[in-house]
Amino acid sequence: METERAGKRGASAALCALGISIALFAMVSGCERREAAAPASPAPPILSWSHFEVPPEPPSTPDLVADGQRVFNENCASCHGPRGEGNGRCAEFLTPGPRNFVAGILRFKSTPGADLPTDADLFRTVSLGLRGTPMPPWKFLLSDRDRWAVVAYIKTLAPALNGPAGKPVELGAEPQQITPQMVADGKQLYADAGCATCHGDEGYGDGPSADTLLDSAQMPIRPRNFHKGFEFKRGHTLRDIALTITTGNNGTPMPSFRESLDPAQVWDVAAFVYGLDNPRLAPGSGSMSAVAQGANLGHPDVVINLRERAWRYEPAVIQVTEGQIVRINFQPTDNGLGAGHGLAIDGYDKDAFINGALVGRPKSVTFKADKPGTFTFYCATQCSTGSLHPNMKGTLVVLAANEGKH
Ligand code: HEC
Ligand code: HEC
After folding, report:
1. pLDDT digits (tens, 9 = 90+) for 110-135
2. Is ligand 2 within 6 A of the CB of residue 306?
3. Quick count: other Cβ atoms within 10 Å of Cβ 253?
4. N or C: which end of the chain has fewer CB within 10 A?
5. Is the beta carbon of 221 within 6 A of some atom in ligand 2?
6. pTM of the model
7. Rounded Cα distance, 82 and 177, in Å
8. Whose CA is nearest to atom 1 of ligand 2?
9. What is the pLDDT of residues 351-365, one digit of tens each?
10. Full set of structural domains in the chain with CATH
């Protein structure tokens, strides 16, 4: 048991060292996008930061803060640290790392520059998580009150967070439609404003400065690749993008353009950026469609729907043939036993690794089964590979190509 655990830990550490962050978090949203829905039917809510409807905030009382502390210790401390210093016991396995609240530099806000976020801003981030990062969407796991409570508690963690919130920026009226003129103007403004220095001429996140950027914790940070809408941390809607351009991401090299672009210009640039992925979508619609990691591998030969139920994988044995492109859709189920699970395959963990799939928020991974043999898969969600999910094991059998033929 000990050696096995040590092995697991070794595997996780190796994964971290490989910097396997980004692509692992490809996700499939829990909400179905409706194709050509009749106008009369109510639109499904858009699960993105700037569209999220924030419920009324309860008054901040000592009781609420005490509840928030309990919620924090149970759900957040493992990543954010017992005192919110970003140094929880899982932190070293995570890329990007969890926020250090005590440093007081918060990124996802409706307020500009270094101004403090509003409580509603924090509530949005806590509710929806940050896409493409290990920060989970707590909306599916904690009640509204618990999320408000933890927001109230976070603010007590550092004097820096105690001040008054900034004033939300004005975005002006959101365009009802993206016109070719907006996109053309936006493209010019994108060049003039210098976005390409970081995000690249064509928005692939590969500008001349891209490899040199650091965040306020002195950790390397990449500019977003605009062709991967599912990696936009706030969400990939016109409004999310316009908000980011206006506020900037405090504590990162992503500047606020509030002084240099007026709201109409911001919407134009946002339209250009938005159009680089999913050009056919209307402005209000989210891009929460299923986008799989490994999309460049082409169409999968096999699709496996893998479930977690009561801390076990179903099916526990997966068999494929060498050379096949395999897609695994992984869905934790709601059984009151903890809602975040992952999948890593020893020997394939560089290609097939899912971190923090949640109830209501399954994730997928696509990889090529290019090594024959028998491999163990296990729960890769942080902190879970050792003692927490001991039963979550399965076997991947990759039959040698010649064996699979008969
Ligand atoms: C699995 C690890 C993990 C857990 C558990 C987790 N977080 Fe996070 N959290 C992160 C990471 C990583 C980030 C930073 C993502 C980024 O900005 O790239 C983050 C960012 C945040 C932010 C963003 C602050 C900003 O800069 O705007 C808030 C707020 C936050 N977390 C609150 C919480 C709360 C509250 C909980 C518990 C209910 C929680 N987190 C649990 C990993 C985690
Ligand atoms: C100095 C470098 C730099 C410049 C210039 C810059 N960005 Fe960024 N941008 C970044 C970095 C770094 C991030 C990633 C921040 C993060 O992960 O929190 C980012 C993130 C973004 C995001 C994604 C936010 C999200 O939700 O994930 C958008 C949209 C964006 N930038 C648009 C722009 C536009 C448009 C311009 C020009 C008007 C611009 N950026 C200029 C560095 C830059």
Report:
1. 999 999 999 999 999 999 999 888 89
2. no
3. 17
4. C
5. yes
6. 0.71
7. 46
8. 253
9. 787 777 777 677 888
10. 2-27+291-404 (2.60.40.420), 62-161 (1.10.760.10), 180-275 (1.10.760.10)
